[in-house]
Amino acid sequence: MQILKVISLLLDYPTAELLAAEDELRAAIAAAREISPEQRQALTGLLDQLAGSDVLDVQEHYTELFERGRYLSLLLFEHVHGESRDRGQAMVDLMAQYDAAGFAIGVRELPDYIPLYLEYLATRESIEAREGLADVAHLLALLASRLTERSSDYAACFTALLQIAGCEPSRVMEDVRAQIAAEQPDNSLEALDKEWEEEQVTFLNGDSTAACGTRPANVRAREDVAVPVHWVDFNDNAQPARRA
User: Fold this and answer.
1) What angle do CA 181, 187, 190 make, to 5 degrees?
2) How many C-beta atoms lie closer than 10 Å to residue 3's C-beta?
3) I need a labelling partner for 178 at 20 to 30 A (CA). Which of 22, 164, 169, 217 fits?
4) What pTM, to 2 d.p., does this model score?
5) Eight-class DSSP state of 192
6) 10-residue block means of pLDDT along the chain (244 residues)?
7) How many structural domains comprise the chain?
């Protein structure tokens, strides 16, 4: 499913190479029939915003948005397990899933990094890919809602993923509206310490059929942590790349 690779690239750390592929990305979005015209337009709007800005400005904005706390972390299990022991087992289980599918990743890459997970799903059959998204639909809805609250064009990536999963984005985002309204994201050291102490939540227990009726998830802000970058070109040639 090529649109998953496109969204993976759009959610990854922006590079000059990514922006140079603007035309290919734009064509792939236009050709995607897994999402509605409105979702295609929203993704194109994000691409317009990225391609129309200086790469250093785009990178700075990306870092401030996704890497200054767990509130918008692109690491799935941070929203679920925090730094608890359960996170390690979840990582092992996801790595085993990758290995069984013959999907190899670099030794420095975290398997729950959302762009990497999407890249993996892009290699699977459509039904399996949709189920994989449905398994994490509650987290996608939270991220979509939080980004929408910030008027971020990146919200388009998550609403598109919800639609591919078989969910109605507006409905599942409405389900988490009360939680979002009660949140007070704060990247101060005091807030980070407080959120680290919050009770962890339980993952989906394998029930993908109920995923579109989103489940609440506690969120903890994290310190600035380097996120692995996994560049994949449109010829399916894996080219792992990392930031200095």
Assistant:
1) 105
2) 23
3) 164
4) 0.75
5) H
6) 95 93 95 96 96 94 88 81 62 85 81 92 95 92 91 96 92 79 59 46 42 40 33 43 36
7) 1
